[in-house]
Specification:
The complex is a heterodimer of chains A (about 240) and B (about 350). Chain A is mainly alpha-helical. Chain A has one domain. Chain A is about 65% helix and about 0% strand. Chain A has 10 helices and 2 strands. In chain A, helix 3 runs parallel beside helix 6, helix 3 packs antiparallel against helix 7 and helix 4 packs across helix 6. The relative contact order of chain A is 0.15. With about 350 residues, chain B is mainly α. Chain B folds into 2 domains: about 160 residues, no CATH class; about 150 residues, no CATH class. Helices cover about 60% and strands about 0% of the residues of chain B. The radius of gyration of chain B is 21 Å and the shape is globular. In chain B, about 45% of the residues are buried. The chains are: A mainly alpha (about 240), B mainly alpha (about 350). Chains A and B meet through helix 9 of A and helix 6 and helix 7 of B.
Chain lengths: ~240, ~350
């Protein structure tokens, strides 16, 4: 394959081909655990770790494994990486591990990871594969954190609660109460809130894309005064 | 010039959207009057504030969607949604509760799905359910009806104060009859009625008259041919049938008599004002019969065996999901064809 373009990889992972809001992959964890920022960061970090590890390993063995058995091999690699991160979280963030529950092992089935392994890592050298895993993971995590922040803010009126679950006792004071005397808006924390806020984020992204496109179109086609239109009578005033 | 997308049939009836909506608003009057007499001015304050919020939300949504504002604001549809939601909410609801509910109904449940005529779910009921699952305490604290205890129902000024400065005036809240019946596990029904002053002649004090008021308004709308009789009659009949089947004559586990179910909570209001929404219900007459009957069954099942005391909103939303499915199987016979087929028949677009 041609030389990897890191700039393009970054734009793809973070915006143009964002796994969460453009490819709509991995929606199960996206919808299930984003009730708060700390859950989102926890699962996001785990996904980044798994993506980098699996992409790197898949790229390493890309010339050894034959095409016919590649998918079981990839799944095995991903499952091992997930087991690693599960054990790590049990060791260092046990309470968060308990909150994330089944969704941590379920990272194995996250389509983003197998998709990147099969679609990118098996055709590319180690360095770009590793970078692609990292940037796709970050793109996924950013959406998770934004969604978690919106839902936590709308649901409880505060942000960054319980951060000590992930960052140690020093993070207990990170909680910001945005609206004091706020009635908890349960809907935002319950599953319907996840769907509604994901939809709103996708809508916002489409809106920004449309604005960008309109601006580029306007820049590209600057009409010259007095020039004739193609196949149209009359002139531009 | 604004080009409107209009679907068939293109024949004009004498009723415009605005006239239909006005009729619905007028038909609310008897029920609202009963609610106001028994619970004080709370419902009226609810309606006034909800209508303001409704018009503002409608204007914001129309502006964002770049739709002609005057035409849609004048069709009263936002007012109807806001009024129906305000009636369904407890009297003396705090201002923010109404703000959240009405703006959610209009902006998300109505305009995000494409505006008037395109919403698959009844907007007022979506707003109600959002509030009920988000703020269960506020949504289930009903004021005590007039004559139940020594304290007078709040006056107009107190009602406004209660809405905009929640907790500023002492008001007595009480469990509704449906709540009491649901929580009761030990008393026989006769004893329950004697011990709790909320129970009236047939159902709850106040509730029975409000229900009869909504029944009267609904019958008037039937007379004006705003909708057909199929959905309301099917709903009331199936609810009566279910209650009669499960009625055990007033033991402690009783689920309530048919008359109690008909005149409690939102039964009449739902039957004549909610499930008759032409947009989110089934289309054909047979479809409406099925739609209404299943709502009646669901209302009884959720009331008697579910977690929430009243069930009209949940039942309506579940059946809104099913309305396209019902339509698919209840297509009427088209003129010149022998029998109604399904939409997937050969030659259909």
């Amino acid at each position: 394959m041609a030389e990897a373009n890191y700039r393009e990889l970054s734009i793809n992972g973070l915006w143009k081909n964002n796994p969460a809001i453009v490819q709509l992959l991995g929606l199960c964890p996206l919808l299930a655990v984003t009730g708060s920022v700390v859950n989102a960061i926890g699962l996001g970090l785990a996904t980044v770790f798994v993506l980098v590890t699996s992409n790197t390993s898949v790229s390493l063995i890309r010339n050894i494994v034959s095409d016919t058995v590649r998918l079981p091999a990839f799944v095995m690699i991903i499952a091992s990486a997930v087991t690693c991160i599960e054990l790590l979280m049990q060791a260092f963030a046990y309470e968060l591990y308990q909150i994330l529950g089944i969704f941590l092992p379920l990272i194995t089935t996250n389509c983003v990871i197998l998709g990147r392994a099969d679609g990118f890592a098996r055709k590319n050298a180690i360095a770009p594969a590793m970078y692609d895993g990292f940037i796709m993971g970050v793109g996924f995590m950013v959406v998770l954190v934004v969604l978690g922040g919106l839902r936590e803010l709308a649901g409880t009126g505060a942000l960054f609660a319980n951060m000590d679950l992930l960052f140690g006792p020093g993070a207990e004071s990170w909680k910001i109460v945005v609206f004091s005397n706020y009635k908890d808006f349960l809907l935002a924390i319950l599953p319907p809130g996840a769907f509604i806020f994901t939809g709103l984020i996708i809508a916002a992204k489409n809106l920004i894309d449309a604005r960008i496109k309109a601006r580029e179109d306007a820049r590209r086609e600057k009409p010259v005064k007095g020039a004739k239109r193609v196949r149209v009578t009359g002139t531009i005033s | 010039m604004a080009l409107m997308r209009v679907t068939s049939p293109h024949a004009h009836g004498p009723l415009s959207t605005a006239r239909v909506m006005q009729t619905v608003l007028l038909a609310c009057i008897p029920g609202v009057a009963a609610l106001t007499w028994f619970f004080g001015y709370g419902t009226l304050v609810n309606i006034a504030w909800a209508c303001l919020v409704g018009l503002a939300s409608e204007a914001i949504a129309l502006k964002l969607r770049r739709r002609p504002m005057g035409m849609y604001l004048k069709d009263y549809s936002a007012l109807v949604t806001a009024t129906l939601l305000a009636i369904a909410m407890p009297a003396y609801a705090p201002w923010w509760l109404i703000l959240v509910g009405v703006s959610f109904s209009i902006i998300i449940a109505k305009h995000l799905y494409g505006g008037l005529g395109y919403n698959p779910f009844n907007p007022a009921m979506v707003g109600y359910v959002v509030l009920l699952i988000s703020f269960p305490v506020e949504m289930t604290s009903w004021a005590a009806p007039r004559g139940v205890n020594a304290i007078e129902v709040p006056g107009l000024l107190d009602a406004v104060k209660l809405c905009f400065v929640p907790g500023s005036v002492d008001a007595v809240t009480m469990a509704t009859p449906l709540d009491l019946l649901k929580q009761n596990k030990t008393l026989a029904v006769d004893a329950l009625w004697q011990q709790n002053p909320q129970f009236g002649r047939w159902a709850g004090v106040g509730w029975e008259w409000a229900s009869l008021g909504f029944l009267a308004g609904g019958l008037w709308m039937l007379y004006r041919r705003i909708y057909t009789w199929h959905a309301p009659v099917a709903m009331l009949a199936s609810l009566t049938l279910m209650a009669a089947l499960f009625d055990d004559g007033g033991a402690a586990r009783s689920t309530g008599s048919p008359l109690f179910h008909l005149l409690s909570g939102g039964t009449m209001f739902g039957a004549f004002f909610i499930i008759t929404d032409p947009v989110s219900s089934a289309v054909s007459n047979l479809g409406r019969l099925v739609f209404g009957a299943l709502i009646g069954v669901l209302v009884f099942l959720i009331r008697s065996f579910g977690n929430y005391p009243d069930a009209v909103a949940f039942a309506v939303l579940i059946m809104n999901f099913a309305a396209p499915f019902i339509d698919y199987y209840t297509q009427p016979r088209t003129y010149g064809h022998r029998q109604g087929g399904t939409a997937s028949r050969k030659g259909a677009p």
